[in-house]
């Protein structure tokens, strides 16, 4: 994922020996000049911001006619060579557009090649030393990637000396190891890089002592080390090194590594080229790693080490632009009670929890893109993962988060086989996370004591007081005129008030992600009613219960359903889960999983509002339904509209073919009933037969 480089004035840039400056692309004002640039130009640090780049660097009163601003971009460096008559220096110059202090600016890095060239002397049998030096400088300063630049440079060094292998060894003084970081091998020469990743420094005392003294190392015959330095002898002969050229390089005046040439056979009378190139390579490694560090810090969250919100925005935009129809799983996570942890135990405890949660996520979803969006919010995006594998990872991660963080992390996850709308998938994951967060609020006495979410507490209190009342609207068989089943509907009525329709309270519950409590409450009321009828010897009829889309996505759905069914000893087939048309917005694999689990548990499934949305038709091919309910909008002009009659009849015929019962909802008159009966509709619901009834009224029909 490419990002614009966002740099800030920092002492780190002053450590580099190249001249680095940043100027405003609009008025050529200097915004920054590093120590090397100030030293060369004699400009004081406090005067940088009051100066023009063309005056300080070129000695000109007006902008340079050869200015490269028009050629620059944020995507890569524009590289050119320039002899500066004002400074009397030869430079390889790299220019790029960057963002500096929130505005677009020009950053230039100028590498002085003049002094290095003057040090070169004689011609050689294969290359002129000056040509080799300039070419290595050009490669190091123009290649887009550090690895490419160094590998090409090592190849040129090996060719110059006729060596079999050229390589870079870097020193980690803290760990006490030397490590082979770069290597070029001539054809037929085996690589040694993998075997030289953790070489103890005390195992190469001769090399280490020599380089610590800033001396070159020339070994004409490895056998000379057998008696005096046996560990070095074994170290070199193990990789078939008969002779060796090596020069050290430094970082902050301390030996930090060396460049070696195994078995050189030409130009053995000079090591100066290797010495100069070692300096340039070390400087380039230092410079590039500084840039990598700055880019890393711009893209990552400093506390957790995960990608940050800005990286998420880039990732999301790149993914949507790519149009890739890959499988995509998203996990939204929110650390529970993080603010409370900070208040009770201090910021350090909260930080430790964030780090632990990030560590669990990174280990659970290795290879996925993981982002920390804010203090307690995380997003995981796993591309090209199978549904079963994705869900298994989520389950294991949730268990680990619960066991390794004080209060766990509320999670919501979604998965789609062919990604079509990333924002929709993301929204679904966040919705489910918020549902689980509400469950945590309810179950956590700590949370309720300190936060007491207003809507949740009010909802639970109203349920305890019986304000949400169960009503039943009967469904009739038009041929027999008898009740064949019923739909459970909810009405709200507080003490001393009139009954309130769902339209006045359900949208708020859906918005606050609390609808699952009402859905499960109504389900339990239905089980209680059926249990009461059973005890009183009444005939049991199927009753359908409406479930919102977000309740269907809840991961504990099937445990709640089966636990309730077992508790009340009512056959699951007598409870029908009524699903609205909005389920079509759920990912196909998830719909399939919901349907199969409901049927495995013995529950019947009804599709409500069929015909209100074009997406319904595809749902019929994904989930197996027991009942399809025609939307009331199809009934409104059924008698007058011949086209509508044709559509309704076709739907009823289709239901017969699928062996699905078709229910006409919203039937209000005799003409509608007669038409529907003639079309073969076997169940009617609507005010023609009955409005929704209180339980006592329903029992009297």
From TrEMBL:
Q: Which Pfam families match?
A: EAL, GGDEF
Q: Which domain of life is it from?
A: Bacteria
Residues covered by the EAL domain: 449-701
Cross-referenced Gene3D superfamilies, in alphabetical order?
3.30.450.40, 3.30.70.270, EAL domain (3.20.20.450)
Show the InterPro entries listed in the entry: Cyclic-di-GMP_PDE-like, EAL_dom, EAL_sf, GAF-like_dom_sf, GGDEF_dom, Nucleotide_cyclase, PAS, PAS-like_dom_sf
Q: Which CDD domains match?
A: EAL, GGDEF
The protein's GO terms of the molecular function aspect are: cyclic-guanylate-specific phosphodiesterase activity
Q: Which residues form the GGDEF domain?
A: 326-453
NCBIfam families per the record? Answer: GGDEF (TIGR00254)
PANTHER family, per the entry: CYCLIC DI-GMP PHOSPHODIESTERASE PDEF, OXYGEN SENSOR PROTEIN DOSP
Q: What is this protein called?
A: EAL domain-containing protein
Q: Which organism is it from?
A: Enterocloster bolteae (strain ATCC BAA-613 / DSM 15670 / CCUG 46953 / JCM 12243 / WAL 16351) (Clostridium bolteae)
């Amino acid at each position: 994922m490419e990002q614009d480089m966002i740099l800030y004035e920092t002492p780190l840039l002053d450590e580099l020996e190249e001249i680095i400056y940043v100027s405003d692309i609009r008025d050529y004002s200097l915004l920054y000049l590093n120590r090397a640039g100030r030293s060369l130009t004699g400009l004081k640090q406090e005067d940088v911001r009051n100066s023009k780049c063309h005056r300080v660097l070129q000695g000109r009163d007006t902008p340079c006619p050869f200015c490269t601003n028009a050629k620059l971009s944020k995507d890569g460096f524009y590289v050119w060579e320039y002899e500066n008559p004002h400074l009397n220096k030869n430079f390889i110059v790299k220019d790029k557009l960057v963002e500096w202090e929130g505005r677009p600016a020009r950053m230039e890095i100028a590498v002085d090649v003049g002094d290095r060239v003057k040090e070169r002397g004689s011609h050689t049998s294969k290359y002129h030393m000056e040509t080799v030096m300039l070419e290595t400088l050009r490669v190091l300063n123009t290649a887009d990637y550090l690895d490419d630049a160094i590998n090409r440079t090592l190849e040129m060094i090996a060719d110059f000396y006729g060596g079999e292998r050229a390589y870079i060894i870097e020193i980690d003084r803290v760990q006490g190891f030397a490590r082979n970081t770069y290597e070029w091998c001539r054809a037929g020469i085996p690589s040694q890089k993998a075997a030289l990743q953790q070489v103890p420094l005390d195992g190469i005392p001769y090399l280490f002592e020599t380089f610590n003294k800033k001396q070159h190392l020339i070994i004409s015959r490895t056998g000379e080390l057998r008696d005096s330095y046996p560990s070095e002898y074994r170290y070199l002969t193990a990789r078939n090194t008969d002779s060796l050229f090596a020069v050290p390089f430094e970082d902050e005046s301390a030996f930090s590594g060396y460049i070696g040439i195994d078995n050189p056979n030409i130009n053995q009378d000079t090591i100066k080229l290797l010495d100069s190139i070692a300096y340039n390579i070390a400087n380039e490694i230092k410079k590039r790693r500084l840039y990598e560090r700055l880019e890393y810090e711009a893209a990552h969250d400093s506390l957790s080490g995960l990608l940050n919100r800005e990286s998420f925005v880039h990732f999301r935009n790149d993914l949507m632009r790519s149009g890739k129809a890959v499988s995509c799983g998203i996990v939204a996570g929110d650390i529970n009670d993080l603010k409370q942890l900070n208040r009770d135990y201090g910021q350090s405890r909260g930080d430790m929890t964030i780090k632990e949660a990030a560590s669990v996520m990174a280990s659970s979803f290795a290879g996925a893109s993981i982002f920390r969006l804010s203090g307690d919010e995380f997003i995981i995006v796993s591309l090209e993962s199978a549904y079963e594998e994705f869900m298994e990872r989520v389950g294991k991660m949730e268990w680990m988060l619960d066991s390794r963080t004080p209060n766990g992390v509320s999670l919501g996850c979604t998965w789609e086989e062919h990604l079509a709308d990333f924002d929709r998938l993301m929204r679904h994951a966040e919705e489910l996370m918020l549902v689980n967060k509400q469950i945590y609020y309810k179950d956590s006495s700590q949370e309720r004591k300190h936060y007491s979410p207003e809507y949740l507490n009010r909802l639970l209190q109203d349920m305890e007081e019986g304000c949400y009342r169960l009503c039943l609207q009967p469904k009739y068989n038009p041929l027999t005129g008898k009740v064949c089943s019923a739909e459970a509907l909810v009405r709200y009525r507080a003490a001393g008030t009139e009954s309130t329709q769902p339209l006045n309270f359900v949208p708020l519950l859906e918005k606050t992600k609390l609808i699952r409590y009402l859905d499960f409450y109504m389900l339990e009321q239905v089980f209680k009613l059926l249990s009461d009828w059973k005890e009183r010897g009444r005939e049991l009829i199927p009753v359908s219960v409406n479930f919102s889309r977000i309740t269907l996505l809840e991961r504990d759905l099937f445990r709640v359903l089966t636990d309730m069914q077992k508790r009340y000893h009512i056959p699951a087939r007598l409870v029908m889960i009524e699903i609205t048309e909005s389920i079509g917005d759920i990912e196909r694999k998830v719909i399939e999983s919901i349907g199969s689990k409901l049927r495995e548990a013995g529950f019947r499934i009804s599709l409500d509002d069929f015909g209100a949305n074009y997406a319904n038709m595809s749902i019929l091919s994904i989930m197996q339904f027991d009942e399809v309910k025609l939307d009331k909008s199809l009934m409104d002009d059924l008698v007058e509209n011949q086209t509508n009659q044709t559509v309704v009849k076709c739907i009823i015929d289709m239901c017969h073919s699928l062996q699905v019962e078709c229910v006409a909802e919203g039937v209000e008159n005799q003409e509608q009933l007669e038409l529907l009966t003639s079309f073969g509709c076997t169940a009617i619901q609507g005010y023609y037969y009955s409005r929704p009834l209180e339980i006592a009224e329903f029992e009297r029909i």
